[in-house]
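pasting for ref
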Amino acid sequence: MTVISVIVGSVRQGRLAEKPARWILDHLKQRDSVDARLLDLMDYPMPFFDAAYPPAMPGRPAYEHEVVQRWTQAIAASDGFVIVTPEYNHGPSAVLKNALDWVYPEWNRKAVTFVGYGGVGGARAVEQLREIAVELQLAPTRSAVHLPAAALYAHFQGQDITPHLAALDDAANQTIDDLLWWSETLKAARSR
């Protein structure tokens, strides 16, 4: 089984992130060889990165914070990721960037894709996350899913966004195909 974790990249009150995260998780659960998991940052209230040593430093001390230890274990247990990201001021949320920064070797040589929302479908946040992913030695896929602004407006008006998500089912399936190809390929390479 290939373990794919969907990361909910927002902890805002009344957030939209949970809806597309559960939608993409449902798509992943329809795949035979996938163990799909949800990693909601609300369940991992990590302090802002304050460790004396960077996570990439060889021989660094173990993480002190229990929640960071749990987060690290969840990342280590995953073969690939779907990061659901809002776009705040042309970038990802601070809580998501912080979650990425706390971990290093556990991200290495795994695939990642994105579901973005916000201005221009969260494209600018996704582009920044692709650059961050490369530094973490993640392999970002070319394809991603970008929610239209209409979905965001519908959410803030208390409307059902299911029709907006359903219109993206083909894009989701193509993105998952790409993610699984890379995740399985990299998993095989890591085991050698």
